[in-house]
Specification:
Layout: E1 21-25, E2 28-32, H1 43-59, H2 64-76, E3 82-83, E4 87-89, E5 92-98, E6 106-111, E7 119-123, H3 124-127, E8 135-141, E9 147-153, E10 160-166, E11 171-172, E12 177-187, E13 193-199, E14 206-213, E15 222-226, E16 233-238, E17 244-251, E18 255-262, E19 271-272, E20 282-287, E21 290-295, E22 303-308, E23 318-321, E24 327-334, E25 338-345, E26 348-355, E27 360-363, E28 371-375, E29 385-392, E30 398-403, E31 409-414, E32 426-434, E33 440-448
Antiparallel strand pairs: 1-2, 3-5, 4-5, 5-6, 6-7, 8-9, 9-10, 10-11, 10-12, 12-13, 13-14, 14-15, 16-17, 17-18, 18-19, 20-21, 21-22, 22-23, 24-25, 25-26, 26-27, 28-29, 29-30, 30-31, 32-33
């Protein structure tokens, strides 16, 4: 039994004042007595939060040793010195590493080969000095490999500052762009024009796309798109081919609209790929003179289509892989010689590969009965290697390279599990139960191999 905790008595928690505020939305009136707590600059709000924290500290004082013990145990199960699997893009291998005793990752790269000297792009441990909170959200390197754009939040408000660093000198440019989205960044091909999404400071919705010219005052940035329907969330990316900058407006599971702009002509206007329609979702991948489209148009489980880049209206789309009522298509990835489809079949994730010249199909095989597999970072186009992530109830998170031509798999990393864990001591299997309506329900079960199931064992069940 653990040590008995003596909880403080006769201590009253702070009580927030009730100040009625009438709010009207869509002609609907409601009264919120705690709306005043929204004002983070209000001294009364800050005092109330201070009182809440003080009350928590007092009530939990008797658990400090337990908290320390739990923290120490959790930390002991994390490998502090660690490094991600490097991925190759535009002449460089990129990776991030953690050093023992430090909280934040260091973003690094090596030119051409992994044996070359390391270049540090961003050391978040140094960047975070002097801040109580610091998050490096995302970064994008220019086509000439000389400038990195990155976003940071030092307030924990999810309003990011967008900054630029000269990788030849290690010095940041003077301009700082506030209130940006954290991960939606896109360089144009001129290594100077940069597109970003600006967030509304109250709703925190990204609703505007701006173009910035490197080395110029932020006040000169140009608004190139504004979303008028606040149901739609915006995202921004550069196509894998590098030819287009894509702006995506989407209502989750309801509607999608892509707008494209040539990366070689940043002053051009975004053009609609296919006009948004209620109930129609799609995503696109560019390759040579065409686009591949994954869509639920007349296909609830999604189908794969293609179209010329000269006519992207859905009336011109042609089918590549038809819908299958037993298979749900989730994602596609394009390569010079292959097309990869991530899908769900029998409630189990699968990877299907099409050889483009022959249209021959095959699946990546997996030995375990129950697992989860997903596509990893695959920025390269002229390669036969597919990178994917794999995990199961017995296998820690792992990263593989798969040769789509030969079928060879290479394990690049399996996340270490400190302690005495040995995956070979466990067995996982997949069972099926029949629901009241006859529907087959998959059940994954894992147990130690030395467990005597016939004797009746406790079961932890979660759904």
């Amino acid at each position: 039994m653990g040590k008995q905790i003596n909880w403080p008595v006769h201590i009253n928690p702070p009580v927030a004042d009730r100040i009625p505020t009438e709010l009207v939305t869509h002609n609907d009136r409601r009264t919120d007595e705690y709306y005043w707590l929204n004002d983070r600059e209000n001294s009364r709000v800050l005092q109330y939060l201070h009182d809440e924290n003080a009350y928590t500290e007092t009530m939990m004082a008797g658990t400090r040793q337990l908290q320390d013990n739990l923290f120490t145990e959790m930390k002991s199960r994390i490998q502090e010195k660690d490094q991600s699997v490097p991925w190759f893009k535009n002449g460089y291998w990129y990776y991030r590493r953690f050093e023992e005793g430090f909280q934040y990752p260091v973003i690094c790269r090596k030119k051409d080969h992994l044996e070359t000297p390391e270049e540090i792009l961003l050391d978040q441990n140094i960047m975070a000095e002097g801040y109580k909170y610091y998050q490096l959200s995302s970064y994008e390197v220019s086509d000439n490999n000389e400038i990195v754009a990155y976003t940071v939040d030092s307030v924990s408000r999810r309003l990011y500052d967008l900054r630029f660093r000269n990788l030849l000198t290690g010095i940041d440019y003077a301009e700082i762009i506030p209130n940006a989205e954290g991960s939606d960044l896109a360089w144009a091909a001129d290594n100077k024009s940069f597109f970003y999404i600006r967030k509304h400071t109250v709703t925190l919705l990204g609703y505007q796309v701006w173009r910035h010219a490197l080395g110029t005052d932020v006040s000169n940035d140009i608004l190139v798109y504004e979303e008028k329907d606040n149901r739609y969330a915006l995202s921004l990316t550069r196509s894998k081919s590098g030819k287009y900058i894509a702006l995506i407006a989407e209502i989750n599971e309801v509607s999608t609209e892509y707008l494209l702009l040539p990366a070689s002509d940043p002053a051009a206007s975004f053009q609609i790929f296919q006009t948004r329609e209620e109930g129609i979702l799609y995503s696109i991948q560019h390759m040579d003179d065409r686009f591949y489209i994954l869509t639920n148009w007349n296909a609830p489980n999604f189908r794969l289509m293609q179209t010329s880049e000269n006519d992207t209206r859905k009336s011109s789309w042609t089918e590549v892989i038809p819908e299958d009522e037993n298979v749900y298509l989730e994602q596609i990835e394009v390569f010079r010689n292959f097309l990869v489809i991530a899908e769900m079949r029998n409630a189990l994730s699968q990877i299907r590969i099409m050889k483009l010249d022959s249209k021959q199909l095959h699946y990546v095989g997996f030995d375990e009965a129950a697992y989860n597999v997903s596509l990893n970072i695959n920025p390269g186009f002229d390669t036969d290697l597919l990178r994917y992530s794999y995990t199961s109830m017995t296998t820690p998170a792992s990263v593989f390279d798969y040769n789509m031509l030969t079928g060879e798999k290479v394990l690049l990393k399996e996340t270490p599990v400190p302690g005495n864990f040995d995956k070979n001591n466990y067995h996982a299997e997949r069972l099926w139960a029949t629901g009241r309506d006859g529907t087959k329900i998959p059940i994954s079960i894992v147990y130690r191999k030395d467990l005597h199931l016939e004797s009746g064992c406790p079961l932890l069940l979660y759904a």
